[in-house]
Write a structure and sequence with these properties.
alpha+beta; Creatine Amidinohydrolase; five-stranded antiparallel beta sheet; 4 helices; globular; binds 2-amino-4-trifluoromethylsulfanyl-butyric acid; binds cobalt (II) ion
């Protein structure tokens, strides 16, 4: 499918979608405390989305059974919220998407539960900074590869690794549109970015190997070596200048 260029009006709607999803993600983060059970986050999303009249994009997507992904410690992405309670020291990634007036917004954050190790804290900060470096690289006239190149160069310079088997994506009326947005690779790769493209940039960063494995549940993706992983994501629009970050509260 060709890359869909969004109009100013469509980007305005996506900004509203992004506001909803970012605000609800903020509420979820406040609930990540020792003893809170993962499914509580799913319950909060259902309640908040119903109140706001937005649709949980993930629920039922290729059979995914929840509204939100909760990925703990060595889990990278696509963890299904279960009966497990958060524990002091856990590293928790939360990924949330909503559909509003026909458009999708997608974002993720990673937080520590209570006190976490200094190295885990550094992993989280490096992943968030990697996302912002990717966002700043996303400008009209450069190639898509500039995003992944900025992310990979920074992350590897910090001694961590970038997941290769899962990538960011175009977003719009569908959660996953072209192009795929890798978090690694050369800057001269891929299509030239143009005003009106909307992308979900989502670096997944591991302390050890970048290699992954998938659980028997068919969803949960973990680091192959059991090392910790972090994930941050924003949906952004390419403009004539600075990219517009749509998933801010
Ligand atoms: N941010 C994730 C992605 O872009 C969310 C998808 S989770 C799913 O792939 F459950 F909906 F698949
Ligand atoms: Co995404």
């Amino acid at each position: 499918m060709p890359i869909v260029i969004k109009s100013e009006e469509e980007i305005g709607i996506m900004r509203e979608a992004g506001r909803h999803v970012a605000q609800v993600l903020q509420i979820l983060v406040e609930h990540v405390r020792p003893g809170v059970v993962e499914t509580e986050l799913d319950r909060i999303v259902r309640e908040e989305f119903a109140r706001r009249g937005v649709i949980p994009t993930f629920l039922g997507y290729q059979g995914y059974p929840a509204t939100v992904c909760v990925s703990v410690n060595d889990e990278i992405v696509h963890g299904i919220p279960g009966d497990r309670a958060f524990q002091e020291g856990d590293v928790v990634s939360i990924d949330l998407g909503c559909t509003y007036r026909g458009f999708v917004a997608d974002c993720a954050v990673t937080v520590g539960v209570g006190r976490i190790s200094p190295e885990a804290e550094r992993l989280i900060r490096v992943t968030e900074e990697a996302l912002w470096r990717g966002i700043r690289a996303a400008r009209a006239g450069v190639r898509l590869g500039a995003i992944g190149h900025a992310i990979q160069t920074y992350v590897e310079g910090q001694g961590f690794s970038v997941v290769r088997e899962y990538v960011g994506h175009g977003v719009g009326r569908q959660m996953h549109e072209d192009p795929q947005v890798p978090n690694y690779g050369p800057p001269d790769f891929g299509p030239v970015l143009r005003k009106g493209m909307v992308l979900a940039i989502e670096p997944m960063v591991n302390m050890g190997t970048w290699r992954t494995k998938r659980d028997a549940d068919g969803w949960t993706v973990r680091t192959a070596d059991g090392s910790l992983s972090a994930h941050f994501e924003h949906t952004i629009a390419i403009t004539d200048g600075e990219p517009l970050v749509l998933t801010l509260p």
